[in-house]
Amino acid sequence: MKKKDKYNIAIVGATGAVGNEMIQVLEERGFPVGDLRFFASERSAGETLPYKEEDYEVDLLGENVFKGIDIVLFSAGEKISSEFAPKAVEAGAVVIDNSSAFRMAPEVPLVVPEVNPHVVERHKGIIANPNCSTIQMVVALKPLHDKGRIKRIVVTTFQSVSGKGREAMDELFDQTRAILGFQDVTVEVFPYQIAFNCLPHIDDFLDNSYTKEEMKMVNETRKILEDESIRITATTVRVPVYIGHSESVNIETEEKITANEARAILSVAPGVIVYDDPKKNIYPIPLNVSGHDEVFVGRIREDESIPNGLNLWIVADNLRKGAATNAVQIAEMLIGSKH
Ligand code: NAP
Ligand code: 3JN
Predict the structure, then answer these.
(1) How far apart are CA 201 and CA 214, in angstroms?
(2) Where in the chain are the domains?
(3) What sign has the CA pseudo-torsion 125, 131, 132, 135?
(4) SS3 (DSSP) at 316
């Protein structure tokens, strides 16, 4: 991207859980923002959102709104991205898309800056941000893959309700309040009550009995690690946590990696914080990780059932590293600044 002092930025889906976080992350990281435009649907058009102590109006997304914009950050779902990202590219912008619309398209780079920064420059206008559960897993697994080549991954996720957006967060709050007040519970966003419960069901079920979320983890991980031979199986579970996805990950490697070696490798890995001292009850938990940009790893131990296996517990803020921060880091790479 041509060097400039400031870049004109648009956020599509600015009023959502991810969009809001994007605004904060742009500000916190001192991104050189010139003009700033916010877009949403008719539900919130006309509202204002703050950025650096100024209020910016939210505009209705429509045709021909991207003229003069350098970078468009999309977080309004797959349908909106499919329709409007090509229009943004046609208008001369580079798109960083948070949805699944383009992730598996061969010509679209799927980027996690700590893992595969080299693919960014191949973009033809659209760069895809991976799914939040994929991002945190690959940040932690890439250095171990480099060391001992991962042959197989078995992952179970414990995903917070913020992964499903604003309305899902409200539903957990409303249900919890209703239950504690001995009132009836309303179920609208999730298939069953989420308060005081957990649901092995994220996104739609597919013909192979996995969910779309589970297959996103399988396919995106292989694309990012550029290794179609890794065998991966995932079970994704929604838990009544507001922010922070946790993952129990078992890997089998070609070369043996001891738990101590894994701890040493991960403690110098970019974007990773090892938080692992079980005798002192030290391991990552969503409440402590929320608001941070790194991926936290604990409970690192050898899988005693096979010769070359490791178990890890990986936790990250899904709205930040899982979405907004990763997208802004990609934008920083595009303009040639830090990430
Ligand atoms: P959310 O809180 O429900 O927010 C949805 C946003 O999209 C709102 O700003 C909403 O605007 C906007 N929107 C909806 N329909 C629109 C339309 N027709 N035209 C323009 N804007 C529209 O959801 P979220 O959690 O922020 O997630 C949004 C999307 O980001 C998801 O669908 C997904 O594709 C992606 N996402 C990715 C990850 C990841 O793993 N990297 C994680 C979470 C989400 P209104 O205020 O007008 O309703
Ligand atoms: O549920 C979660 O914790 C993550 C959800 C991500 C999500 C939600 C709605 C649509 C996605 C995604 O990023 O894969 C999408 C989508 O764009 O398909």
Answers:
(1) 9
(2) 7-129+323-335, 134-317
(3) negative
(4) strand
**Whole-structure pTM over 0.85, yes or no?**
yes
Alpha helices in the chain (DSSP H): 17-28, 78-90, 132-148, 166-180, 212-225, 259-267, 286-289, 325-334
266-296, pLDDT tens digit by residue? 999 999 999 999 999 999 999 999 999 999 9
Query: Does the annotation count 132 as an active-site position?
Result: yes
DSSP string, 320-335: IIIIIHHHHHHHHHHT
Rg, the chain, Cα only: 20
Q: How far apart are CA 242 and CA 194, in angstroms?
A: 11
CATH superfamily of 7-129+323-335: NAD(P)-binding Rossmann-like Domain (3.40.50.720)
Ligand 1 atom closest to the Cα of residue 15 is 9
The β-bridge relationship of strands 94-97 and 71-74 is parallel
CA distances from 107 to 44, 96, 126, 188 (A): 34, 14, 9, 37
50-77 mean pLDDT: 97
Is residue 286 in contact with ligand 2, taking CB distance under 6 Å? no
Helix (H, G, I), strand (E, B) or coil at 274: strand
CATH 3.30.360.10 fits 134-317, yes or no: yes
Give residue 218's identity as a one-letter amino acid code.
Answer: V
Rounded Cα gap, residues 331 and 150, in angstroms: 30
Nearest CA to ligand 1 atom 25: 165
Q: Is 199 helix (H, G, I), strand (E, B) or coil?
A: strand
Which amino acid appears at position 143 of this protein?
P
Other beta carbons within 10 Å of 198: 14
% of the chain surpassing 70 pLDDT? 99
Q: Give the number of the atom of ligand 2 that is nearest the alpha carbon of residue 77.
A: 17
> How far is the C-alpha of 276 from the C-alpha of 280, rounded, in Å?
9
- Ligand 1 mutation pick, 98, 132, 138, 216, max ligand atoms within 8 A of CB: 98
Which one of 41, 169, 224, 242 would you pick to mutate in the ligand 1 pocket, going by the greatest count of ligand atoms within 8 A of its CB?
41
Ligand 1: distance of its center to the CA of 112 in Å? 20
